[in-house]
Specification:
The chain has 275 residues and is of the alpha/beta class. It folds into three domains: 88 residues, Calcium-transporting ATPase, cytoplasmic domain N (3-Layer(aba) Sandwich), CATH 3.40.1110.10; 107 residues, HAD superfamily/HAD-like (Rossmann fold); 68 residues. The radius of gyration is 28 Å and the shape is elongated. Helix 9 runs antiparallel to helix 11. A hairpin with a 4-residue loop joins strand 4 and strand 5. The longest helix has 34 residues. The strands form three sheets. Strands 1-2-3-4-5 form a five-stranded antiparallel beta sheet. Strands 8-9-10 form a three-stranded parallel beta sheet. Strands 6-7 form a two-stranded parallel ribbon.
Length: 275
């Protein structure tokens, strides 16, 4: 987002020059602040402005409220005393988002959206993606607390995120999924990283995991089945009863067939596709 705003300003006014900013501090879920020539500067949410006793310029506040009603996220820019500008941004929902959410629901998974955006923006985004449960204006630590609350209710929670603000919730979740084009911190905190930003890969990964566990159990059954029957018979367990003893070569063949069945059964996973 920062790169997009800076690029836009540069394209619209070639006379804009960069200003060195010192003491830069990231304020998770709120924005960023820094200093230049002895003066502090802020960029972030209206909450950040109010917490630092910065008055919102009435004309800018009216414009921001209008953008908020249009489901846009507003970013304020201010000095120590007052707001100087406000920018509106909106997230473009990925084409496959609604389909991915639909797949998750069909799998019996409840989907929640946690965002720091304004209520109106969050509601509009959730409606477009087909998400029934959402929380707006959530700070990073509140995301982690929400995940913990779900866990305390007996739920197994998977968290997917791509930003710095998601890292705490990713670390708290039972299964953490980072998107490949997200921040390095999110990928470090996650147990699994989706290389692309295609949300369809999430239900595919869950479905593949279920099939993999099922295949492992099937393989264990066949391996034990061959060994529990063939080895004792080859050792002569039936000899005292009816005089039958299995040729060790046949027993060895049976064990080899167990390995073949395990490999053949595992190869079925190559036919996997998300329905």
């Amino acid at each position: 987002m920062a790169v997009a705003v800076a690029s836009y300003l540069t394209l619209t006014d070639n006379h804009i020059e960069g200003v060195p900013i010192e003491n830069i501090e990231n304020l998770p879920g709120k924005g960023i602040k820094g200093s230049s020539k002895g003066k502090r500067w802020f960029a972030g949410s209206a909450r950040l402005m109010l917490e630092n006793n910065i008055s919102l310029t009435p004309s800018l506040e009216r414009q921001a409220n209008g953008w908020a009603q249009a489901a846009m996220t507003t970013i304020w820019f201010a000095d120590d005393e007052r707001t100087l500008a406000v920018v509106a941004i909106t997230d473009r929902i990925k084409e496959n988002s609604a389909t991915a959410i639909s797949h998750l629901k069909k799998s019996g998974i409840d989907v929640y959206m946690l965002t720091g955006d304004h209520e109106t923006t969050a509601r509009e985004t959730a409606a477009k993606a087909g998400i029934e449960h959402y929380r707006a204006g959530v700070l990073p630590h509140e995301k982690a607390l929400f995940v913990k609350k779900l866990q305390e209710s007996g739920n197994i929670v998977a968290m997917a995120g791509d930003g710095i603000n998601d890292s705490a919730a990713l670390a708290q979740a039972d299964l953490s999924i980072a998107m490949g084009k997200g921040s390095d911190i999110a990928m470090d905190a996650a147990q699994m990283t989706i290389i692309s930003s295609d949300l369809l890969k999430i239900p595919e990964a869950i479905r593949l995991s279920v099939l993999t566990v099922r295949t492992i159990r099937q393989n264990l059954f066949w391996a034990f089945f061959y060994n529990l029957i063939a080895v004792p018979v080859a050792a002569g367990i039936l000899y005292p009863v009816n005089g039958f003893i299995l040729n060790p070569m046949i027993a060895g063949l049976a064990m080899a067939l167990s390995s073949v069945s395990v490999v053949a059964n595992s190869l079925w996973l190559k036919r996997f596709h998300c329905e």
